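Researcher: We plan to redesign the surface later, but first we want a full-length starting point. Tokens attached.
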């Protein structure tokens, strides 16, 4: 199984559901997207994941080829300025 982890730092996420072993919903505003359900990988959010343990967005594939999808969120921005972006993603 291959996993790509996209990290989200600086926000505390409730851990009660994760401790109980139940799936944890992604933070507000985040969703996962795939062109069709049959080519969607498995999406999950781990509130204790990432190098600083503040949460990670996970995408896991299985034995099927051609799986495609991504996490999505819209951020408001003000035009005319500079927007610094960082992508601390790492694949295993």
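Model: Full-length starting sequence:
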């Amino acid at each position: 199984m291959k996993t790509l982890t996209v990290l989200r730092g600086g926000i505390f996420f409730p851990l009660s559901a994760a401790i109980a072993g139940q799936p944890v919903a992604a933070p507000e505003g985040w969703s996962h997207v795939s062109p069709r359900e049959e080519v969607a990988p498995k999406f999950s959010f781990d509130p204790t994941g990432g190098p600083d343990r503040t949460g990670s967005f996970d995408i896991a594939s299985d034995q099927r080829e051609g799986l495609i999808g991504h996490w999505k969120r819209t951020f408001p921005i003000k035009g005319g300025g500079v927007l610094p972006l960082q992508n601390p993603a790492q694949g295993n």
